């Protein structure tokens, strides 16, 4: 498996097999390190009823926010939703189901899913609405709740560099949720800024081994800034 060439030439090939009512895991944090072209392809495909798991839901008109325009997302599992007016309207109107999850818990749910761990205990959320309906226990005098792992039908990931075999390197903070997302999808698709020849990436610099990756595509990216702040003169 590690020797397979995982490059695809088109975004249609990259997301072949994605259909209505699937669960999609998406890397990124705010607008940093988001798989923006894969998201745009999902919009073009017009698939509906999606459950999307991501730290947030982009902004109006960009990132995952574009999937709200035609109501392609049925349920959103995320930790932050404060930058999207359309998201707010659909949530308040009952059109969009939202499961808010503490950020660290969301990361661990994805990591556990990728590692084959079905559930784990955490103190985060105990005694709050997050814990409602969940099993509670006590370890060493500390109350904890049981959280279930997350996996998905597709994982869409943004990397910096990859080789033909799907070994991926992320750039600085664009790493964010991408590595855990990459491990937790039945089909993991990575779009990157550069594809290099096998052997160029040192084993010590690879963040996501190719064993987790099914398809790699070369893309061009807008890299929009979410909140631009400049120093006043």
UniProtKB/TrEMBL annotation:
GO terms for molecular function: 3-oxoadipate CoA-transferase activity. InterPro entries: 3-oxoacid_CoA-transf_A, CoA_trans_fam_I, CoA_transf_BS, NagB/RpiA_transferase-like. Pathway: Aromatic compound metabolism; beta-ketoadipate pathway; acetyl-CoA and succinyl-CoA from 3-oxoadipate: step 1/2. Keywords: Transferase. It is an enzyme of class 2 (transferase). Its EC number is 2.8.3.6. The keyword Transferase applies. GO terms for biological process: beta-ketoadipate pathway. Coiled coil: none annotated. The keyword Transferase applies. It catalyses: 3-oxoadipate + succinyl-CoA = 3-oxoadipyl-CoA + succinate. Belongs to the 3-oxoacid CoA-transferase subunit A family. This is 3-oxoadipate CoA-transferase. The lineage of its organism: Bacteria, Pseudomonadati, Pseudomonadota, Gammaproteobacteria, Pseudomonadales.
């Amino acid at each position: 498996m590690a020797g397979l060439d995982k490059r695809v030439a088109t975004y249609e090939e990259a997301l072949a097999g994605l259909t209505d009512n699937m669960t999609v895991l998406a890397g990124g944090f705010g607008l940093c390190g988001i798989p923006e072209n894969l998201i745009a392809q999902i919009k073009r495909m017009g698939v509906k009823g999606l459950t999307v798991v991501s730290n947030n839901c982009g902004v109006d008109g960009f990132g995952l926010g574009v999937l709200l325009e035609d109501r392609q997302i049925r349920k959103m599992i995320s930790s932050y939703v404060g930058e999207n007016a359309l998201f707010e309207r659909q949530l308040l109107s009952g059109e969009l189901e939202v499961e808010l999850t503490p950020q660290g818990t969301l990361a661990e749910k994805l990591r556990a899913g990728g590692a084959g761990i079905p559930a784990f205990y955490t103190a985060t959320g105990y005694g709050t609405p997050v814990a409602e309906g969940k099993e509670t226990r006590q370890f060493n005098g500390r109350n904890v709740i049981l959280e279930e792992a997350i996996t998905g039908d597709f994982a869409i990931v943004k990397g910096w560099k990859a080789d033909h075999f799907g070994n991926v390197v992320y750039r600085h903070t664009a790493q964010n949720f991408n590595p855990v997302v990459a491990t937790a999808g039945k089909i993991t698709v990575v779009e990157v800024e550069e594809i290099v020849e096998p052997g160029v990436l040192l084993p010590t610099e690879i963040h996501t081994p190719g064993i987790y990756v099914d398809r790699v595509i070369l893309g061009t990216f807008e890299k929009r800034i979410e909140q631009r702040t400049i120093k006043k003169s």
